[in-house]
Fold this sequence. Notes:
With about 230 residues, this protein is of the alpha+beta class. It has helices spanning about 30-40, 75-80, 95-100, 115-125, 165-180, 195-200, 205-215, and strands at about 25, 45, 55, 60-65, 85-90, 130-135, 140-150, 155-160, 185-190, 200-205.
Amino acid sequence: MIEISGYRSSIFPPVDSADENGIVAFSRTLNCRMLADAYFHGIFPWPWDENSPIPWMFPPERGVLMPEDFHIPKSLARELKKSDFYLTVDQDFEAVITACAQTPRPGQDATWITPEIIKVYSEFHRLGFAHSFECRTPTGELAGGLYGISIGRIFCGESMFYRLPGASKFALVKAMEIFRKLQIKVIDTQMVTTITALFGAKLIPGNEYLALLNKYRGEPIKTFSLD
């Protein structure tokens, strides 16, 4: 069991030492204790490929989606209302992260979700830090989803995917219902994409993110459920 309350001091250099690209450090290894320490201090890994050292990032600006700013465009609300998707949580984390790794990204030749990332984050899931939100068809097939990390009242969204139109958006909308119920205060999106901007994500300076992190971080929420 890992308790992040023990990470008041970090194994990583101070985030204000990050270079112009937001790189705080490099490592050849990756494990759950490193992840717990990193997320507690606002840092995340972003591998370039399977063979290079792993960069640990604290970008100068951070994408955030605040629950109070979250909104659903009217056209999307109508579309989602007609869908027959349903949500499950933490039923198949490895399937979700693997699907995210296999999803082509515009402008990217490779995925940062390497086999090592899949292996270690799956273990992080078993320890209660990482969670998956699965959008399913009426027959139970996985249509889309997202996964991320719980650090107290902050949820760090990592990646999304879809196999059917609207599936990842459905998963995010339903996940937000759970976040609000659990009084999650900040959804860290790392960057702002076309999809997250649609719902109200914005960029804030790194020092503002640190202030939010210091206020709301804590032990992970172990159970995310609509019930």
